[in-house]
Amino acid sequence: MRRNTALILVGLVYFSMCASRALAQTTRPGAAAPAKPQAAKVDASAKSSALAQVDAKRALNTRMPEVKLSGARLEDAIQFLQDTSGANIHVNWRALETVNVTRETPVTLRMSPMPLRKLLKFVLTEADSAGLATFYADDGVIEVTTRDLADQRLVTKVYPVDDLLLTIPDFNDAPQFQLGGTTAISGGGGGGGGSGQSLISGTTNTQDQNQVGKAARGTELVQLVMDTVQPEVWRENGGTSSIRYFRGRLIITAPRSVHEQIGGAVE
User: Fold this and answer.
1) pLDDT for residue 101
2) Are 120 and 170 within one domain?
3) For 147, what's the count of Cα atoms within 13 Å in the CB-facing half-sphere?
4) Same domain, yes or no, for 123 and 215?
5) CA neighbor of 148 nearest in space, from 102, 226, 92
6) E runs forming strands in 147-260
7) Counted domains in the chain
8) Does a structural domain hold residue 166?
9) Whole-prediction pTM
10) Confidence band (pLDDT; 50, 70, 90) for 235?
11) Are residues 116 and 168 in the same domain?
């Protein structure tokens, strides 16, 4: 009995020593357990913000509610437009300051419901009566900046103008019918043939003439645009913009402000 008790005590001591040695090995410096891989953290606010962003081009056509601003700060007015429409609007304040437009510029405006595009234009006009501030949509963002900065980038657009070059003939040179000089159709079992002479004389190749006339009118239209829309920007006048006529279309590479005067907003 005593012998069995001694063996049990020896076993307990040995087990205790082994456990202590294993514990020391796992807790010694430099033997830290391998770290568990952590899942990448996602900024919940950034994710929800990205999902909430509205495409800039569609946002510009969003119908805004009635707006009443009385001496509001320009920054607050633009923030209101952004919050209401959900559009991503970025304002280049440093550029606007060069034309004396700041965050504190007062805006007084009362407008009935209208698209964001038109309302933003009225807000900028109230802040800058000289028309030096503008905006445009690019890569999903509505950029508010100066007109000079926006015009630094040239944009190429194609305008169909075939309908502008169409002319309606006045028919002052109608074809002549010559019935007296034709040969009658012979009778008989077989069909007879005529003399081969045309009943209509005096016809001209009007299609070729129309093409030549359309090209000439296209050249005149190009010159008209260069003479009336910011003449100083065109390459022929020492600028960097270009315009050409090709098969019923005007191909224009010019600043945004030029396209706005020719065909509306650039998007």
Assistant:
1) 96
2) no
3) 15
4) no
5) 92
6) 155-160, 176-177, 200-201, 242-246, 249-254
7) 2
8) yes
9) 0.59
10) very high
11) no
The mean of the pLDDT values for the chain is 77
User: In this structure, are 259 and 172 located in the same domain?
Assistant: yes
SS3 191: coil
Q: Is the pLDDT of residue 102 over 80?
A: yes
Question: Would 111 be classed as within a structural domain?
Answer: yes
* pLDDT tens, position by position, 106-132: 999 999 999 999 999 999 999 998 989
The number of beta carbons lying within 10 Å of the beta carbon of residue 185 is 9
Same domain, 163 and 249: yes
Which pairing describes strands 67-73 and 106-111: parallel, antiparallel, or unpaired? antiparallel
Q: How confident is the model at residue 155 (pLDDT cuts 50, 70, 90)?
A: very high
Q: Please, which pLDDT band fits residue 214 given cuts at 50, 70 and 90? A: confident
- Domain-located, residue 188: no
Which residue has tokens 């001591």?
A: 13
Retrieve residue 51's tokens. Answer: 């999902």
137: CATH? 3.55.50.60
- Please provide the size of the chain in residues: 267
d(CA 76, CA 69): 10
Give me the domain span that covers residue 133. 52-150
pLDDT for residue 186: 47
User: Percentage helix, strand, coil, to 5, in the chain?
Assistant: 45, 20, 35
Task: Single out the residue in 113, 131, 150 at which a domain terminates.
Answer: 150
Q: What are phi and psi of 227, to 5 degrees?
A: -80, -25
- Tell whether 31 is covered by a domain: no
**Separation between Cα atoms, residue 93 and residue 85, nearest integer Å:** 21
Longest Cα–Cα distance of the chain, Å, equals 153
- In this structure, the number of other CB atoms found within 10 A of the CB of residue 9 comes to 10
